[in-house]
Amino acid sequence: MTENYPLQSESPIVHVRLHPIAMPLVERLVTSFGSEARQDSLRAAVLVELELASGITGWGECVASWAPRYSYETVETALHILRDFFVPAVLGQHDLSKLHAFRGHPMARMALEAAFWSAVAAERGVPLGDLLSEGAARKERVSVGVSIGIQPSIDATLAIIEKRLQEGYRRIKLKIKPHWDVELLRAVRSAYPDVLLMADANSAYTLDDTPTLKQLDNLNLLMIEQPLGYLDLYQHSKLQAQLQTPICLDESIHTADDVRLMLRIGAGKIVNLKPGRVGGLIESLRIHALCHSEGVPLWIGGMLETGIGRATNLALASLAGVTLPSDISATNRYYDPDLTEETFTLNAEDSTISVPKGVGLGVTVNRERLAAAEVAYYKAVAAVE
Ligand code: OSB
Ligand code: MG
What we know:
Layout lengths: L12 E12 L17 E11 L4 E6 L12 H16 L15 H18 L4 H6 L7 E3 L2 E3 L5 H14 L3 E5 L6 H10 L4 E5 L9 H5 L9 E2 L8 H7 L6 E3 L6 H10 L4 E4 L7 H14 L3 E3 L6 H11 L34 E3 L12 H16 L3
Parallel strand pairs: 5-6, 6-7, 7-8, 8-9, 9-10, 10-11
Antiparallel strand pairs: 1-2, 2-3, 4-12
Bound molecules: 2-succinylbenzoate (OSB) and magnesium ion.
The site of 2-succinylbenzoate (OSB) has 14 residues, from loops.
């Protein structure tokens, strides 16, 4: 059975190298559950470098974090699963069908899948986006917004929003949690009556907080992202029935069937698609096709990726069914320097980022910076405090 992994390479997979890395973030993003970075602002990731017998390579990024907060996976579980199961299963193969034998670990799975797909795109001489779109029309520039973490004060938040608007971002997402919500969003809305504004709770509320969440209803928010439990659909349907503001699900969506159930029971109206969360590009394409045909607004979420993961996300965001601004900001908001030679910049006139046009992933890895980021990873895990 290969239906989940239909893509075939001409030349077999001969090497898969795993690069655990740690990179200093330009700024930490504090959410209701904390941060993806450690106190020293280091973001961890695992980069997957896949080589075909022809010598063609592809790269993928695993977006798991140091700690199992956003999801149960961590960098170390991803390394374990990739090294001991996923990679041995695909060596010598022309496709990834052997991954069928394993359950779970979507972020590890996606990293390998992204590396394979970008290698096959390079083998066929096309950009990854063309492989994903299968000839359908797609965008050259994608609409993006910026995500702003929990700050020490409302004034500090307003100052950052002003800076981001000056930079050209036209959609602002604010992280919220109980007691960092109504007053904050009212202040921002009154300072910026017309800005595209949304809030992301990362599962910080329960149905008992419905009265608080209802107070956000007259602020003309684009959406409220993942207010309730990280696996929940049912309680979201109870909440959505009482809110005008559309609920967008992030953490709760792992498959296209989850989106079907979300629509059927009215648990939300918008989907945040993160390929790592849904276990790869095939599942991402299923969700994209479903949202496209049902007219469900869709955007691509971010996990503070390096240029590798960002290039993959940009290729996905170029698909026609991605209709709302994605969480893909310019390189200078995340890493300085990044691991890729290319930097992604914001087109300030229309709050877009250009999709890589080169074959494969369309970005090149700086080997010196990669080596330094690997050393930083091993130093960080060896440091006992
Ligand atoms: O909930 O979307 C989220 C980052 C880490 C974990 C969860 C989330 C996020 C973001 C990042 O919001 C947005 C970005 O990468 O620009
Ligand atoms: Mg989110």
